[in-house]
Amino acid sequence: MVQSAGPRVQGSSGGGLGYKGISNAFAVEFDTSNNDNDPIIPNQSHISAIATPGVADASEANSIGWNDSPVNFNNPNLQGFIANPLITIRYMGNTLTVYVNSVL
Question: Which of 38, 3, 41, 40 is nearest to 23 (CA)?
Answer without folding.
Answer: 3
